[in-house]
Amino acid sequence: MSSSPPAALRPIAITQGDAAGIGPEIIARAFRDAPDALRGCFVVGDVAVQRRAGGCILRAGDTMLPVATIAAAGQALAVPPRCVPVLQLPGLPPEPPAFGRISAAAGQAAADCVVWAARAALRGEVAALVTAPLHKEALSAAGIAFPGHTELLQAEAAQHAGVPLAEMPVRMMLASDELRTVLVSIHVSLRDALAAVTQGNVLAALRITHAALSRSLGRAPRIGVAGLNPHAGEGGLFGREEIDTIAPAIRAAQAEGIDARGPFAPDTVFMRARSTPQRPGEFDVVLAMYHDQGLIPVKYLGVDKGVNVTLGLPLVRTSPDHGTAFDIAGQGVADASSLIEALRMARQLSSLPD
Length: 354
What we know:
InterPro entries: PdxA_fam. One of its GO terms (molecular function) is metal ion binding. Keywords: Metal-binding, NAD, Oxidoreductase. Pfam families: PdxA. By secondary structure, this protein is an alpha/beta fold. It contains 11 helices and 12 strands. Helix 1 (23-33) links the parallel strand 1 and strand 2 (41-45). It is globular, with a radius of gyration of 20 Å. Strands 3-4-2-1-5-12-11-6-7-10-8-9 form a 12-stranded mixed β-sheet, with helices on both faces. 36% of the residues lie in helices and 15% in strands.
């Protein structure tokens, strides 16, 4: 990507997400309410879907949010504020899907948008991509082999680099002003998540976290590592994963100069890492052993503040930290705060020096 224009001269792609959910609505609301954060951004998706979303958020006395069709990513830079530029992908369904219903066609369309944006980012045509929520059942119904964004983007990056999937390790980070967590495993069953707690996987997560946050923080991050078992195993009384697997991975990381400590009891380590105006966190990030262990604390502190960041990719990808919210889709009440934060973080990350 060294031959690409500087990030400030490249647009940011926003994928539309599952059109049966709130993705298009929060995109429309963000363009209307946060024009400074949305400058130079464009939507990868369907014009009709985005126009319908604009109607959903229409307030009394408002004029309809304009939608502009663009033919190339670079044209987004010339679109005026509070106008939604949409790069219309060919082959999408001719009509927007019904709100709140799982649809294979909507799942396929959402995946197609992500693939287009990922390839544009890998070619250096866009500075970053921000992804509106997918619906995992809709993806599965469409026959998509990947359960979510992270795995789909990992596969695209590996293919672009010409390497096996195992040589493109990635991790999910959920971040807010108060807390960051990185996950050892992502979208797998709890039984498979336990099996994924190996020394190699924990060490790989520590390396990816150290490299990514060293770049964004400008210094080595302080990484607190959560145990797997209650009380971090209590010296082997409640399980030996901490002794046999997690602690050896931490020691190996420390030997490489990584500031990793633990494993700590998972019911208290997140409180120790939380940063507030009254007290800075003891750690910059917590490495959690599985999905819910790490995501529940961040989401509890405020879904509107959290941003999902994929670490380890040769591109910048962020996302709001919530799902498709089928239960409120089409009502015009969805909150765009997390999407706006994801856009701001994408802009910040894409502007960092290589």
